[in-house]
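Minimal example, chain plus flavin-adenine dinucleotide.
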Amino acid sequence: MDFKDFELIYDDNRIKIKDKSSIKTKLIEIVGNNNVSTKDIDILAYSKDSTLITFNWLLEGKISGLADFITWPETPEQISDILKLANQEKIPVIPFGEGSGVVGGAIPICGGIIVDMKKFNRIFGINDKDLTVTVETGTNGMNLERFLNKNGYTCGHIPQSLYTSSVGGWIAHRAAGQFSTKYGKIEDIILGMELVLPQGDIIKFKIIARASTGPQFDKLFIGGEGTLGIVTRATLKIWPFPEKRAFISYAFPSFEDSLEATRQIVRQHIFPAVIRIYDADETFRHFGNIEKAKDKVMVVFICEGIERLVDLEKLITRETCEKNNGVECGEEPVEHWFETRFKVTETSSTPTFKMVFDTIEIGFLWDKAADMYHSVIEATKNVKGVVLITAHVSHFYSNGVGFYFTFAGIPPKEKTNLEFYQEVWNTVIKTVEDSGGSFGHHHGVGINRSRWMPIEWGKSFDTMKDIKKLLDPNNILNPGKIFESLWKEIGEN
Ligand SMILES: Cc1cc2nc3c(=O)[nH]c(=O)nc-3n(C[C@H](O)[C@H](O)[C@H](O)COP(=O)(O)OP(=O)(O)OC[C@H]3O[C@@H](n4cnc5c(N)ncnc54)[C@H](O)[C@@H]3O)c2cc1C
């Protein structure tokens, strides 16, 4: 295949490598002949992740980013040697888990060497007393959860992308699973890790329940999105597989009522594993057949754990819903959610209808949550071409919530897909930032959101950039992500 026939979205930033064949020889010396590829088919396979606009680009014959080499190392030492070589030659290195990221984190926008983590797939076993499991970070999420379930445990981290994401991708993106309200997000679940720093040093953080030995340095690398280090091994918390699961659902007359009920539940220190509020439009979309939920706001709950506690949680959840005008809808809506929770047909089919579709998850404190929901919906509806803007709330804390907005539209004639996409994103993010929320709850920053980092972090973003410079003076580890924005240029195309 001749890539010259395609438009390369990120062409300007690509590092030109003078002597590709000598770099390839050196890479083969490090990882072996079978673990390096420069074949077009491989280069193309690693040109995008699951960022939705990249599907539109692909249908338009545009390629997001082209790497120069794909590698499949098997040990931290090999990764270290790749990074040392990359530093000598000033070639970017991009860690790659399973490419299910939705913000472009794994796209090789500056070219360079892809470090695919798939061969880091060993699960070292369970420590029952400590309730931990140690894994290599290329391990697929579903493989890990199946292994744990078979042995009577769960990790409690069940993202919708469980079948298509890796442990390393979860850590790199500060991921949040669907059962996070009880088990926590990945930063609550990880106890320790091993990683290779940008200049090749291999470091290990102690596996300990807690320590008071200085700042939480290890936390710096959770959410690093492959810019500060490549995580090779992690020890995660696990739990005995729940003895009982209770499915509960209530329909509320208004979004406000549903927020109030769930706020009161978590305020009582009751944390059902799953809580999901669907606004009226999403209730119609997912639960249109439930008569009691007609024109209402559906909330589904799953309480799980030991039987006696589950029964108590169920009782308090039900009482609190009923006190806040909830109408009981039984187990059926929750069974429906549970069976379809990994289905993403909507997402993958919209670009073929020439629609631009995406999801935006944001974080907010309780106080302004309802107002913020209405502001985002109203502002987005006013963008010309938007045909759908809906939301659900899927992550709950005693202090706030994580919202998940979904939009779809057909760009007006005067706008390209990308211009329309950007206008919707800008509208949502501006509304959120103006009201004091956070522009990303669990998908990370990647290429799209890095342009808002100075607004999100203020002056502390400069300090963050200093840390990046210190660890990675040649800026070889995943350039163009988090710390710098190359997105603006493509917006001007
Ligand atoms: C249908 C669908 C549903 C999703 N649902 C959820 C959800 O419920 N919750 C959620 O949090 N996310 C969700 N996501 C987003 C995505 O699945 C997560 O961000 C996931 O954690 C990415 O994992 P990955 O292995 O595919 O990483 P990739 O996409 O391959 O990489 C993501 C980032 O991590 C870096 N990286 C990968 N491995 C390593 C490593 N070992 N060390 C350092 N950096 C590394 C990459 O460089 C990149 O920046 C969903 C995505 C899709 C497509």
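The radius of gyration is 23 Å. The longest helix spans residues 417-434.
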